[in-house]
């Protein structure tokens, strides 16, 4: 799977978990959503580093 698509899917999952956590008042979902944001950011950083290495 392309890195850009994977990153967008992680961020979409994060938003869904955060919304579900707020609506259902479940802190576990909010924390999980924040973790997904961190994973999505990590994928973005790896993609940027890889692109710079190819130049």
What does this molecule look like?
It is a single chain. The chain has 55 residues and is mostly helical. The protein has one domain (3-49). Helices cover 91% and strands 0% of the residues. The chain is built from two helices and no strands. The protein is elongated. The protein starts with a helix and ends with a helix. The model has no long low-confidence stretch (mean pLDDT 79).
List keywords for this structure.
single chain; 55 residues; mainly alpha; 2 helices; 91% helix
How is this fold's topology laid out?
Layout: H1 3-24, H2 27-54
Helix pairs in contact: 1-2
Order of helices and strands: HH
Helix content: over 70%
**Beta-strand content estimate:** under 5%
Q: Give Rg in angstroms.
A: 13 Å
Q: Give the biggest sheet.
A: none
- How many helical elements? 2
Number of domains: 1
Q: What ranges have pLDDT less than 50 throughout 5 or more consecutive residues?
A: none
User: What's the number of extended β-strand segments?
Assistant: 0
| Cα end-to-end separation | 22 Å
């Amino acid at each position: 799977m392309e890195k850009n698509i994977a990153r967008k899917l992680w961020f979409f999952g994060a938003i869904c978990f955060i919304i579900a956590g707020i609506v259902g008042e479940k802190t576990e979902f909010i924390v999980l959503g924040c973790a997904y944001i961190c994973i999505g950011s990590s994928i973005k950083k790896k993609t940027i580093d890889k692109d710079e290495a190819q130049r």
